[in-house]
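Deviation from plan, reported transparently: fe (ii) ion complex.
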Amino acid sequence: MKTQNSKKAVLTLKDLYWDWAEKMMQPIPVLHQHAFETMKLAVKTAIAMGMSYDSKKVVNIGIAAFLHDLGKTTWPKELFVKTPILPHEWDIIRTHPLQSEKIIKEKWPDVPHDVLRLVRQHHERPGGRGYPYGIYEPSIDVLVLAACDVYTAMVAKRDYRTVKSFAPEVALAEVARFAPEQVVDALAKAAQIRRVEDQGHICSLVMNE
Ligand SMILES: [Fe+2]
Ligand SMILES: [Fe+2]
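Because the crystal trials were delayed, the predicted structure below was used instead.
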């Protein structure tokens, strides 16, 4: 029985994706798919976090999730499929959040500041372990997006990886290494998976997602 409809944010996917961005990503199916999957999961996770009281917050997370990796459209194609990553390639990877921000500002001058902030910070991690700025305490909405980004990338099939796709429980355990409890619980609920004990460190395989 659905008794909470009145409390739910009224969202359609159309509110969250943008034709211009879709056109940019379509030639790179792995990127396009990742954007779409991250968007769906981020909206569900934000709602599971109780953010639906403020639908603008949910919308901004959803939009940012769709646009977050647009900077990768400037990458050389081989960077999507190669491993290991060489030192000079890490420089390209580490600037992609700022590259995404630049593209969005050019294409969408009135973009909400929160969307830009989320995109810019989606690789920041607590304790200053992320990039590009090494922010010590990323905000909770950033960590929702970061968690969904990592989870989506890990469970997706990537032929170039030794492990082609990770089990949902393993991906969730990896997310739990940086995301606070409430985000991990909400993500587990949104993805309909159960939490298990620590699966061991998966390493930074998904740092470039
Ligand atoms: Fe990503
Ligand atoms: Fe990214």
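The chain has one domain: 12-191. We consider this an acceptable substitute for the interim report.
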